[in-house]
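--- STAGE predict ---
source: upstream dedup step, 1 unique chain passed
mode: sequence only
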Amino acid sequence: MPPLVAGLLVAYFAFHALNGELGLVGKARLDHRYAKLEVEYAALKREREELMRRVVLLRPESLDPDMIDERARANLNVVHPNELAILRPGRGREN
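--- STAGE serialize ---
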């Protein structure tokens, strides 16, 4: 094998060992993506647990009167006379 071909092969493999999908740079990209996905997974897990908690409260065998009251008010868009409604800007319709 001529030295030029051997040198090109070594350069090719060295380039891909550094910049390839599984090379050093690629591993850093994968580590960054892994960390990002772990954060997303933790957020989704917390959201799922919150939804599961709310579902348990809505089951017929464990109906929570406060939950029923909250859902009814939210769906009917009403408040109790003793409650204070705080309207946040940027949500809902803009008039």
